[in-house]
Amino acid sequence: MRMSSVWLKRLLHVTAVMTLLTVNTFMIARESLAAVPDEELLAPMAELKSANFSKKAQLVVDLSNIEDERVLLILKGMLGGDLYYSKQSADSFFVLSSGESGYLAQNVLTAEMLSDISKRDYKKISVNNSLRRLLRETLASLQLRSPNVETRIDAARAMMKSDDESNIKPLRQALQAEESASVKKLLAVSESMLVARYGSSHERVDAIGRLKGELYPEVRSLLAGFLIERDGAFLEADSDVRKAAAEALASIEDLVAFNKGVENVYFGISLGAVLLLAAVGLSITFGVMGVINMAHGEMIMLGAYTTFVIQQLMPNHIDYSLLVAVPAAFLVSGLVGVIIERGVIRHLYGRPLETLLATFGISLILQQAVRTIFSPLNQSVSTPSWMSGSLEINGALSLTYNRLYIIIFSLMVLFALAMLLRKTLFGLQMRAVTQNRRMASSMGIRTGWLDALTFGLGSGIAGIAGVALSQLTNVGPNLGQAYIIDSFMVVVFGGVGNLVGTFVGAMSLGIANKMMEPFAGAVLAKILVLVVIILFIQKYPRGMFALKGRAAED
Amino acid sequence: MKKYTKSIGVGFSAMALSIGATLVQAADTIKVGVLHSLSGTMAISETTLKDTVLMLVEEQNKKGGLLGKKLEAVVADPASNWPLFAEKARELLEKEKVDVVFGCWTSVSRKSVLPVFEELNGLLFYPVQYEGEESSKNVFYTGAAPNQQAIPAVDYLMNEVGVERWVLAGTDYVYPRTTNKILEAYLKAKGVAEKDIMINYTPFGHSDWQSIVSDIKKFGTAGSKTAVVSTINGDANVPFYKELANQGISAEDIPVVAFSVGEEELSGLDTKPLVGHLAAWNYFMSVDSDTNTDFIDSWKAFIKDADRVTNDPMEAHYIGFNMWVEAVKKAGSTEVDEVSDAIIGVTVPNLSGGFATMMPNHHITKPVLIGEIQDDGQFETVWQTAGAVMGDAWSDFLDGSKDITADWTAPLACGNYNVKTGKCSGQNY
Question: Is the CB of A129 less than 8 angstroms away from the CB of B251?
Answer without folding.
Answer: yes
